[in-house]
């Protein structure tokens, strides 16, 4: 089926929503990378097998949407639910039950007791401090979050476009195509003060405006899905769990600057993200949402996927565009900047996955709605990968301005094994460590900059009292030195010397003057 206009898109949305609502029971099995590694793929196959004899069982969304029919059970592979510490995860709707640490041998009990009779299996529920939490939304890990960008992750089948359309997908893109001019779109993003979620926090609308005003009319939209920071997996989870949201954001950006070609640069180490992006692009093209003459408006946009070669430096804009062009991924001196001469020497909008994923909801709900979340200088939410010596590891999304203490102790459940908190590493190898005295620091771009740290892409590595901070410094310096592109002497030689000093100190062979030399080199 190919959609030719806005009315047909609305009809598809109604049909898809009807099919979802007519399903009496939806079994959403986490099929993010973490849960798949824990065996959720086999759990999915088993649940499909157990439900296959149910009347009209809907194991997969087929190419046709059966309008008006009732489906007793639907087994779905969702994206990452976020609560990685408790995987494999299974959500059962409409009960809202979340089963944790599900094993293959639990499937028959789940089918017999919960799916057929609606009974809760208590030993599969999450428990904290003696309290049992049947409902997912009541679990402290989820209750204290504000999941906007991650709203669909874990709630829809990431491999079927109809599920995204059913929950309002591509409404924002249709709105800009039929109701707004490109300048209107840019103005909305400017007013929202959406800042880039890749680390720098540069104002997104201003970047788009700079591209739109260039004399050169051939322009490109590029998505940075490289995400090379140790411990970071926010972008990966969005691409795996809700790829159409990011694609829709790119399409809105393309309309805003009148670009006709886009590229998604994804880490080669993210094969599942690449696979789901390819499926999403193909399905959008088949429906006529992506490609030539979209929805009969005359606007055309094509998307391509490039897989990175594993170089950390390709997360930098000019190195990334060079890599897409087939050259060695090396940064270049600015100016000219990417907005003036980016991909193939043409004006280029370059944002990361999470930034684009924010765009559809800003267009749909308005700039005022968005600025009402977070802080005035850093509105909206931020996704963080919470890892390390913390009880509840996983993917979280919180309003900008939340404190570090709230993240680690309320959402994260505190330090493992009752140990004392020592520090949290934030912002990747280029970031810094925050200590106990900074636990009440606000998590937003400007507040962290003032104390010598940065949000970066959003990795949070928590460390307890037993962590050796010198070893942590050595680890990150080793990473930085190994990933240096070698173009600039201070980085190429300086990081090598710093690593040598840190390795000597860790080995117990530190010398007088080492600390002073480290500071000078830094």
Describe the SSE topology.
Blueprint: H1 6-22, E1 23-30, H2 33-37, H3 40-51, E2 71-78, E3 90-93, E4 97-99, H4 107-115, E5 126-128, E6 131-133, H5 140-143, H6 161-166, H7 171-179, H8 182-192, H9 204-212, E7 220-225, H10 234-241, H11 243-257, E8 261-266, H12 271-287, E9 302-307, H13 317-324, E10 348-352, H14 353-365, H15 367-371, E11 381-388, E12 394-399, H16 404-411, E13 421-426, E14 432-435, H17 445-450, E15 459-464, H18 469-483, H19 489-506, H20 514-521
Parallel strand pairs: 1-2, 7-8, 7-10, 8-9, 11-15
Antiparallel strand pairs: 1-3, 3-4, 5-6, 11-12, 13-14, 13-15
Helix pairs in contact: 7-11, 7-14, 8-9, 8-11, 10-11, 10-12, 11-14, 18-19, 19-20
Instruction: Please outline the major beta sheet.
Output: 5 strands, mixed
Tell me the distance between the termini: 59 Å
Count of distinct strands: 15
Helix content percent band = 25-40%
Q: Beta-strand percentage?
A: 15-25%
Using the CA coordinates, give the radius of gyration: 24 Å
Structural class: alpha/beta
State the low-pLDDT regions, or none. Answer: 56-69
Number of helices: 20
Q: What quaternary form is this?
A: single chain
Strand order of the largest sheet: 12-11-15-13-14
Mean pLDDT: 91
How would you sum up this structure, described in words?
The chain is α/β, with parallel strands linked by helices and 522 residues long. The protein has 20 helices and 15 strands. β11 (381-388) and β12 form a beta hairpin. α10 (234-241) crosses α11 and α18 (469-483) runs antiparallel to α19.
């Amino acid at each position: 089926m190919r959609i030719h206009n806005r009315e047909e898109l609305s009809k598809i949305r109604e049909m898809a929503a009807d099919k979802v609502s007519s399903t009496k029971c939806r079994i959403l099995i986490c099929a993010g990378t973490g849960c798949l590694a824990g065996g959720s793929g086999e759990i999915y196959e088993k649940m499909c097998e157990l439900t296959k004899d149910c009347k009209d069982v809907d194991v997969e969304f087929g190419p046709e949407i059966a309008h008006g029919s009732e489906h007793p059970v639907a087994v779905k592979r969702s994206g990452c639910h976020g609560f990685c510490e408790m995987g494999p995860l299974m959500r059962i709707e409409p009960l809202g039950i979340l089963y944790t640490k599900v094993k293959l041998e639990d499937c028959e009990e789940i089918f017999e007791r919960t799916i057929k009779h609606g009974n809760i299996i208590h030993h599969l529920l999450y428990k904290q401090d003696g309290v049992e939490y049947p409902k997912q939304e009541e679990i402290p890990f989820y209750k204290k979050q504000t999941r906007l960008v991650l709203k669909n992750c874990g709630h829809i089948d990431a491999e079927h476009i109809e599920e995204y359309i059913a929950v309002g997908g591509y409404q924002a893109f249709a709105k800009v195509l039929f109701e707004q001019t490109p300048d209107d779109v840019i103005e909305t993003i400017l007013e929202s003060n959406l800042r880039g979620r890749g680390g720098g926090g540069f104002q997104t609308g201003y970047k788009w405006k700079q591209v739109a005003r260039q004399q050169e009319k051939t322009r490109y939209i590029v998505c940075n899905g490289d995400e090379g920071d140790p411990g970071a997996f926010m972008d990966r989870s969005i691409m795996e769990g809700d790829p159409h949201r990011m694609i829709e954001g790119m399409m809105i950006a393309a309309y805003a600057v009148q670009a006709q070609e886009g590229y998604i640069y994804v880490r080669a180490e993210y094969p599942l993200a690449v696979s789901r992006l390819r499926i999403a692009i193909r399905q959008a093209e088949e429906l006529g949402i992506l490609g030539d003459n979209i929805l009969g408006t005359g606007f055309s946009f094509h998307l391509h996927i490039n897989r990175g070669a594993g170089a950390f430096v390709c997360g930098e804009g000019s190195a990334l565009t060079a890599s897409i062009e087939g050259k060695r991924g090396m940064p270049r001196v600015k100016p000219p900047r990417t907005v003036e001469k980016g991909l193939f020497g043409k004006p280029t909008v370059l944002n990361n996955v999470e930034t684009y994923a924010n765009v559809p909801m800003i267009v749909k709900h308005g700039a005022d709605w968005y600025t009402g979340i977070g802080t005035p200088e850093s509105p909206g939410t931020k996704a963080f990968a919470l890892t390390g010596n913390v009880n509840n590891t996983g993917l979280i999304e919180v309003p900008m301005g939340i404190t570090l203490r709230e993240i680690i102790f309320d959402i994260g459940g505190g330090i493992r094994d009752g140990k004392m908190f020592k520090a949290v590493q934030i912002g990747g190898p280029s970031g810094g460590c925050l200590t106990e005295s900074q636990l009440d620091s606000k998590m937003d771009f400007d507040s962290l900059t003032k104390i010598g740290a940065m949000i970066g892409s959003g990795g949070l590595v928590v460390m307890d009292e037993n962590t050796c901070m010198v070893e942590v410094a050595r680890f990150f310096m080793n990473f930085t030195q190994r990933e240096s592109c070698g173009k600039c002497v201070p980085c190429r030689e300086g990081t090598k010397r710093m690593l040598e000093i840190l390795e000597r100190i860790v080995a117990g062979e530190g010398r007088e003057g080492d600390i002073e030399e480290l500071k000078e080199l830094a």
